[in-house]
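Quick one:
INPUT:
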């Protein structure tokens, strides 16, 4: 899935570059419309320590589920948690 995502991102980047180079903002076909639009600017944090505390949100304690699962799989006895029998799952792969 990750490989497909990276391939799709690369193809999308190439398509955007081609449309920009040809000064094409919109492509309309009977079954689809492709258009370019400016995305909102992403946040770039340069120095976290310089950001005023008004912009910090206190976080409640959060259970480390992955750490808990790993410890239980190693055989550790942890009060309040155990591993259940796993259910069957269906896996479908396409080429």
């Amino acid at each position: 899935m990750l490989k497909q995502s990276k391939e799709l991102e690369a193809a999308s980047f190439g398509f955007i570059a081609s449309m920009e180079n040809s000064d094409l903002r919109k492509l309309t076909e009977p079954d689809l419309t492709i258009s370019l639009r400016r995305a909102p600017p992403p946040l770039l944090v340069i120095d976290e320590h310089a950001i005023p505390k008004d912009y910090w949100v206190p976080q409640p304690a959060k259970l480390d589920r992955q750490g808990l699962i790993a410890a239980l799989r190693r055989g550790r006895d942890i009060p309040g948690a155990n591993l259940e029998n796993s259910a069957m799952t269906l896996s479908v792969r396409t080429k």
